[in-house]
Write a structure and sequence with these properties.
Elements lengths: L1 E11 L7 E6 L20 E7 L2 E7 L1 E4 H9 L2 H7 L2 E5 L7 H13 L3 E6 L5 H7 L5 E5 L5 H8 L4 H12 L4 E7 L7 H13 L4 E6 L5 H6 L3
Parallel strand pairs: 2-6, 6-7, 7-8, 8-9, 9-10
Antiparallel strand pairs: 1-2, 1-5, 3-4
């Protein structure tokens, strides 16, 4: 089983509890205008033209990795996970776009008794989420816009499927963090914040994490070869 990975970050501290390793998979069905990882959009390796010390370098973004290769990498830091209450986070892109690979990773990590977190936009068929629920200890779930038409305008997709999956997962009362990027002139308004407050009231067990906007991804888009 192979998947396309564009980054592996060890000793990550902001992608779930404790010390973690975050695996970033390529491929995403959304095109959020504010995305800080546009190199994750395409489900294939691609080149990025970057400048290092004044020299232009053509860097390959994304490479095939096997499940065994990633398990080997993650297990290097298992003592740190056990000591800190950490584990592994699968992010992207959208991990559900490489579903079979993501499923195999989650199963393997659970077999090794490693805490798992899935960082997802929620844009995938519910039947797929059902298949992997038992292998996920924590959800990081994005909530971008309350209005479906605006969601499609700014991300290329409507939000009905995302909201439906959110509701189903929250009803299961699994550990869940709703991650809400606040984008100036897009969703920094009463409607959006009111919807977040409704989620908090309806599902008191979930955690709300409002994320400050930054434009780190803007330069990357012009650097990427499509």
């Amino acid at each position: 089983m192979k998947g396309i990975v564009f980054d592996i970050q060890r000793f990550a501290l902001h992608d779930g509890p404790g010390i973690r390793t975050t695996i970033f998979l390529k491929g995403c069905p959304l095109r959020c205008e504010w995305c800080h990882n546009p190199e994750s959009f395409l489900l294939k390796p691609q080149y990025q033209n970057i400048t290092v010390n004044g020299e232009k370098i053509r860097k390959l973004v994304g490479e095939e990795k096997t499940v065994d290769e990633l398990i080997f990498e993650v297990l290097k830091d298992k003592d740190y996970y056990d000591e800190s209450g950490g584990g592994v986070t699968i992010s992207g892109g959208e991990p559900m776009m490489q579903f079979e690979f993501t499923k195999s990773l989650l199963k393997a990590f659970k077999k090794e008794k490693i805490h798992t977190c899935l960082d997802t936009s929620g844009f995938a068929k519910w039947e797929l989420f059902e298949e992997i629920l038992s292998y996920i200890d924590l959800f990081h779930y994005d909530f971008k816009l309350a209005d479906s038409a605006k969601h499609k305008k700014y991300t290329s997709q409507p939000n009905e499927l995302i909201l439906s999956n959110l509701e189903k997962i929250c009803k299961l009362k699994k550990p869940f963090i709703l991650r809400c990027p606040i984008i100036p002139n897009v969703n920094d308004n009463y409607e959006h914040n009111n919807k977040i407050a409704q989620f908090a009231k309806l599902y008191p067990h979930i955690e709300i994490d409002k994320l400050e906007y930054h434009d780190m991804g803007r330069n990357k888009i012009s650097e990427l070869e499509l």
